[in-house]
Design goal:
Length: about 180
């Protein structure tokens, strides 16, 4: 059941972190930690020519010293497990090629790609593509959504440290993904 949550949790954590700017330092196996993962994502994105993200990266701002809601505390803990970059905005010329170049650059840094997926979003040629990459105990979800009906691009590279995320209980994973099992907390 943990696996079904990982993509959702990575997206939710990154979205909350981008919006709230929470974060902490994380160090993974063999010294490859959050900062190293974040730098590799930054470098690959910049090298591919994707636009600058206007969203804060995990760890860049901490709005409150002590979050009060349980979900906020869990999200803050998850920040230590997360490195991410995201663009949501107007259509970017050549975005798909730049996304592919970013994935290729991450591959040159030792990220091993799984099987990519592609699905049609609409009848006008909109697509959603993605691939999961792994490196040194980290899992990175790379996604590009180009819905032509909305005339926008959404590109994201969200990495989580596997051992760090495994410390979350099933209930905490549900809270992170927004699935509270029918209860309100």
């Amino acid at each position: 059941m943990r696996t079904r949550h990982m993509t959702t949790v990575a997206g939710v954590v990154a979205a909350v972190l981008f919006g709230a700017g929470c974060g902490a330092e994380g160090t993974g196996a063999g010294g490859f930690g959050r900062e190293a993962a974040q730098e590799e994502i930054r470098a690959a994105v910049a090298g591919a020519g994707l636009p600058k993200s206007e969203l804060p990266e995990p760890g860049s701002v901490t709005p409150t010293a002590a979050p009060t809601a349980e979900r906020d505390r869990i999200v803050q803990r998850a920040a230590a497990c997360t490195a991410a970059w995201q663009y949501v905005g107007p259509v970017v010329e050549g975005a798909r090629g730049k996304y592919d170049a970013t994935v290729a650059a991450l591959g040159k840094e030792g990220w091993k790609a799984g099987k990519p997926f592609e699905e049609k979003l609409d009848d006008k040629g909109g697509t959603s593509v993605g691939v999961t990459l792994k490196k040194s105990g980290w899992t990175l979800f790379a996604r590009h959504h180009a819905p032509t009906t909305m005339a926008m691009d959404m590109v994201s590279f969200q990495a989580t440290e596997d051992a760090c995320m495994s410390r979350f209980s099933e209930r905490e994973m549900d809270l992170l993904s927004g699935d509270e099992g029918g209860t309100k907390g």
